[in-house]
Amino acid sequence: SFETLLRQSVQLFRRHRADAPAEALKAQFYYARALCRQGKWQQAAEQAAEVYSAQCRHYGEHADHDDIAHTLRLQGNINAMQPATLGEALPLLEQAVAMFERLHGMHHAETAYTYTQIAEQYAKQGYVAEAQSVLRSTDTILREQLGSLHPYVAVAQWRLAECCDMQRQYGEAQAHLAEAERILRGHGCQHAGAEHAAHLKRLQIRLY
């Protein structure tokens, strides 16, 4: 399986490439993401925490680095999927977005996409109007930086649809959902209805 291959690559890097810790940590990062795709959240959390600690030792405890920002975002998303750690998700995502912002500025795709995930947490906490405002901004930036057919845009449109539905803006919600579906069809997805929503959720997990 893909998970097995990634686990083996981590072991090989550790055994034969002790001189290349960054590459070994990237392999372990992708292994943690593979665990997410299988819903193995606790195992994924353990792997991601190990990666983060090792990255801080490798790059420096207070260093800003893309790899560290991605790992913080991964940890935040993993915590968001577990009721016991849900409260820890937003602080980690905020750390990640602050690092992306220091590295690349506000109008970078990774900064904007991390704000999309922060907006999801705002909405869950009842700050739906604030989440909607953030999502409109991130959707614009993602389209400018990546084009209107990128999967990141599909996730932003999906989250906008959810916020509009919560605000009883049903027509706008349907329009955003249709846009997300159109983007996914451009990537070969033919799902609709409940299957479409499930596919969007799987897509978001793949993009952690």
Describe the fold and architecture.
Helices cover 79% and strands 0% of the residues. The longest helix is centred in the first third of the chain and has 19 residues, at 41-59. It is mainly α and 208 residues long.
Provide keyphrases for this structure:
10 helices, 79% helix, globular
Short description:
With 208 residues, the protein is mainly alpha-helical. The protein has helices at 2-16, 21-37, 41-59, 66-80, 89-104, 109-124, 128-146, 151-166, 170-186, 193-206. The model has no long low-confidence stretch (mean pLDDT 86).
For the secondary structure, the number of strands is 0
Q: What's the assembly state of these chains?
A: single chain
- Strand residues, percent: under 5%
The sequence of SSEs as H and E is HHHHHHHHHH
Mean pLDDT, all residues: 86
Count of discrete alpha- or pi-helical segments spanning 4 or more residues: 10
Specify the biggest β-sheet. Answer: none
Helical content band = over 70%
> Low-confidence parts, pLDDT < 50 over ≥5 residues?
none
Query: Which class do the helix and strand fractions yield?
Result: mainly alpha
The Cα radius of gyration reads 17 Å
